[in-house]
Amino acid sequence: MTNLVWLVPLFPLVGFLINGIGWRKIPKTAGGVIGSLAILASFAVSLGIFFEVKNSGASTTVHLFNFIESGKLLIPFAFQVDALSSLFLLIITGIGFLIHVYSTSYMHEDEGMVKYFAYLNLFVFSMLLLVLGSNYLIMFIGWEGVGLCSYLLIGFWFKNRDYTNAAKKAFVMNRIGDLGFLVGMLLILFNYGTLSYNEFFGQLNGGQVQLSANMYNWIAICLFIGAMGKSAQIPLYTWLPDAMAGPTPVSALIHAATMVTAGIYMIARSHALYNLAPAALNLVAIIGLATAILAASIAIRQYDIKKVLAYSTVSQLGFMFLALGVGAYTTAVFHVMTHAFFKALLFLGSGSVIHAMGGEQDIRKMGGLNKHMKITGATFLIGCLAIAGIPGFAGFFSKDEILASVYAHSPVMYYLALGAALMTAFYMFRLYFLTFTGSFRGTEEQHHHLHESPAAITMPLIVLAIMSVIGGYLGLPAVISEHHTLNTYLGSVVSNFNVHHLEHNTEWMLMGLSTGLVIVMIIVARVATKTPNFVENTGLAKVLENKWYVDELYDAVIVRPLAALSDALDRFVEKLGIDGIVNGIGRLVRWSSDRVRLLQTGQVGFYIFVMVIGMALLFAIRFFGLNY
Amino acid sequence: MPVQYYLFLSLALFCIGMMGAMMRRNAIIVFMCIELMLNAVNLLMVAFSKMYNDSAAQIFVFFIMVVAAAEVAVGLAIIVMMYRKVHSVDINILNRLKH
Amino acid sequence: MGVYEIIFWFLTVMALSCALGVILSRNPVNSVLFLIATFFAISGHYILLNAQFLAIVNIIVYAGAIMVLFLFVIMLMNLNADTEPQKNRLVQIAGAVSGGTLLLVILAALRTSTITTLDQTSTDIGLIKNLGKTLFTQFVLPFEISSVLFLSAMIGAVVIGRKETEKEA
User: Fold this and answer.
1) Cα–Cα distance measured from residue A531 to residue B42, given in angstroms and rounded to the nearest whole number
2) Which residues from A are below 8 Å from B99, CB to CB?
3) Best mutation site among A596, A607, A608 for testing chain B: the one with the most B CBs within 10 Å?
4) Closest-CA distance of chain A to residue C92, Å
5) Between residues 598 and 627 of chain A, which touch chain C (CB distance below 8 Å)?
6) What percent of chain C has a predicted confidence (pLDDT) above 90?
7) Over pLDDT 90: what percentage of chain A?
8) How confident is the model at residue C83 (pLDDT cuts 50, 70, 90)?
């Protein structure tokens, strides 16, 4: 089965080609079926690979062909099949399939539906390339591919200028990160002469090439900058909330479950490098923690249902980086998995709500939807419980594992992270209560229109809800069970580094503390939303509503000076300098040719005259001139 | 009789023809001067033919005559045409090459 | 100085003076006549050089056909000394000086070359029989091609020389 791994990205590619080439001709339903089937086929192969890897625990490199062959440099196009990549394969194709099914209904009214499926398949293809690649270059190809698809899908409704601007913003911010990734890759290539994981990590562990600690840190930080862009961390996070301009299933697939976790995958994959770079690891932890807190605080005061979820995603990604930063790599991957379940669920649930509300996204105009949309409401509640960290749901296990690892690393960071987790609980339940309970605040027409979504939408919700519950039991905390399924599974590829195990008493205490506080926060949220009144925010709340004015800050500090500099360069260097030189050359030629032109009198006699003189000169030079 | 004499004679004829081409404005005279220059070359060819006792040079003279005859036919046609257009054979009137 | 030398010098003086006459006479008709005289002198040289056939061809083709064509054209246009366009003096001097310079330069260059005397015994390479053999064996391809050249020149002359009709303009 492992040798057939090339089939996994092939199916989405074929789906993309069929839908992408024929998107004008293929009927909508057929396009949706083709797109979904392609992913289903990939999922089937992925399942086979997953179980094979699970049984054998082997790491295989499937070599397809030599991609770049130049002198000593050899970069093969090869796939790495091991526990880490096969887990990601399952997440991508599994959730991808559910979201494809969901999209067949959600996008059915859209004229560009077949094109949409083509993009979606291309995205899945790129994402699979990203996780399957056996070297950084293949990963980078996938990395760029998902960035492109993200751009295309955010700007899918390209007739709206705000949406296309959001797409451009996402693309540009990703490019900044990509530059870091590229520099990191080149540093690796320069120092080790290879980009392949096996060779690179082998050399790192074997220590054939000894670099200064600073060099390890620089390489690690450069790669992390790439992760910052793709996974929306401070300072490059602002594109993700804007990316909500895309269709909701896209937000669920790309901007919650898969693409944004690419950074976590990359760092987990490169753990051997990060283990040697403590400073970079600290930076990852600090950035992750800061992002978790900042994004959570912003989410408290957002009114757009998707914006809340977007900031929640940023915040959760921050948690994952925090886990990576304290060395708990498998914990981060665990959280990636559970987060993929419940965040995809929440996004799809919000899509169902938006669908029912006829495109309305403002939660101030919702309320009481539970009465009309029982399945959506129930699954959304499960998602909220999972992300808030109520015991028994998936989020509890992964988040608690992160918190425990952080506590072992530094209690101060633990309390800050706990704060962010509590804010998560608050804003998620604020969102839930405002949307699904109380009385309806929208227009009469919308109220009349409210209905439960069709099966193609609710089925994925139910599946994801189930996964959001049971997904957590793959990684039971140490106090409950000594056997951590996920850690065992991933053990052949990546294991936690430098994470101290807590005393059982301490761990019980931490779990009790966080659970208790989360329940308190849910009650607070219930009280706060009991009588919703949306007065103008003042003070801190206003700052939060305006996202800490980060966009404005970027605009003032980076965008405007850059625009002014470009303007100045355009005016002085371009117009006066370069244009001056170019035009000056042109003018010089024209001026001199104006004078030389006078020689061409057009009179034949003159031409003969000049010719004779020339002949005389040639003869004179030939016979009496220099002897050569 | 040294071959230099023929060399100098044909050179003198050639240069006279060239001076004529430069000094005169009448297109027909210029044309005749060119014929003169061709004949100067022909003379030299024959002299060399004698010197090397080789008839190939004389064949060359034939070909030069052939080309000259063709040239005269076309050239005179052009001059007639030019005269018909501008009622002059002054080569300086034809300075359109400038444009 | 034998007869040969006398004839040589006579023909040389005649050729040069007639050539000067071509370029100096104001009347184009006189120029043509001077040119014909020059050709006769050159033909005389050909005979001295044992190129009898070329001498005859030169007279028939050049002095006969081509120069008559010139005369026809001149008479057709009714050109004479009065209609002769005049160059200004400066251009004439410049032309004479530059031509003379070229002459002097080449003379100076050839002045020191080794002297080869042509023998005065008659050879038969200039006879029509030998020339014909060479022409139709060694040079048969250029000969054929020259006929194509003639044909195209003929067509060209006809096309250029015909009157333009209204329709074409």
Assistant:
1) 120
2) 602
3) A608
4) 10
5) 605, 609, 612-613, 615-616, 619-620, 622-624
6) 28
7) 30
8) low
Q: Neighbours of A (≥3 Cβ pairs closer than 8 A)? A: B, C
- Give the percent of chain B with pLDDT over 70: 94
What residues of chain C lie within 8 A of the CB of B77, using their CB? 156-158, 160-161
Residue A67's SS3 state is: strand
- The β-bridge relationship of strands A73-81 and A60-70 is antiparallel
State the residue for tokens 């101030």: A364
Nearest to A300 by CA among A579, A546, A601: A546
Under DSSP, is residue C42 helix (H, G, I), strand (E, B) or coil? helix
Where are any strands of DSSP class E within A53-179? 60-70, 73-81
Determine whether the interchain pair C105/A616 forms a contact, defined as Cβ–Cβ distance below 8 Å: yes
Q: What's the N-to-C CA distance of chain C in angstroms?
A: 66
**Is residue A311 a contact partner of residue A241, using CB atoms and an 8 Å limit?**
yes
Q: Which of A343, A430, A422, A347 is nearest to A390 (CA)?
A: A422
**Rounded to whole angstroms, what are the CA distances from A270 to A174, A274, A495?**
20, 7, 12
Distance from CA of A603 to the nearest CA of B (A): 5
Residues A447, A366: Cα–Cα separation, whole Å: 9
Dist. CA A13–CA A18, nearest whole Å: 9
* Each residue's pLDDT tens digit, A457-469: 889 999 999 988 8
Alpha carbons within 13 A on the beta-carbon side of A192: 30
- Residue in C with minimal Cα distance to A621: C105
pLDDT tens for residues C96-109? 888 888 888 888 87
For an interface test with C, give the residue of A608, A611, A618, A623 to mutate (most C CBs within 10 A).
Answer: A623
| Nearest by CB: B2 against C12, C58, C117 | C117
What are the mean pLDDT values of chain B's consecutive 10-residue runs (99 residues total)? 86 91 85 92 90 87 90 88 82 66
Question: Is C19's CB within 8 Å of B16's CB?
Answer: yes
- The CATH number corresponding to C3-161 among 1.20.120.1200, 3.30.428.10, 3.40.50.150, 3.30.465.10 equals 1.20.120.1200
Please tell me which of the candidates B21, B95, B98 has its beta carbon nearest to residue A608.
Answer: B21
Question: Any idea where the domains of chain C sit in the sequence?
Answer: 3-161
What Cα–Cα distance (Å) separates residue A68 from each residue in A72, A133, A137, A266, A469? 10, 14, 10, 22, 45
Q: Where are the alpha helices (DSSP H) in A439-529?
A: 444-449, 455-470, 485-490, 504-528
C-alpha distances in angstroms, B75 versus A60, B34, C29? Answer: 86, 11, 18
For residue A529, count other CB atoms closer than 10 A to its CB. 19
* Cβ proximity of A137 and A67 under 8 Å: yes
Task: At A157, list the tokens.
Answer: 């409704």
**What's the token pair of residue A186?**
């080149």
Q: Within its chain, how far is the Cα of A307 from the centroid?
A: 16
Query: Which pLDDT tens digit goes with each residue over B14-26?
Result: 999 988 888 888 8
Residue C169 pLDDT level (bands cut at 50, 70, 90): very low
Any CB–CB contact under 8 A between A609 and chain B? yes
Return d(Cα A380, Cα A349) in angstroms, integer.
6
- From residue C59, how far is each of A107, C12, C35, C153 by CA, in Å? 99, 17, 12, 22
**Whether residue A67 has pLDDT greater than 70:** yes
Give the Cα separation of C56 and B54 in Å (integer). 19
CB nearest to A613's CB, from C98, C106, C109: C98
Question: Could you tell me the domains of chain B?
Answer: 3-88 (1.10.287.3510)
**Closest chain A C-alpha to B21 CA, distance in angstroms:** 7
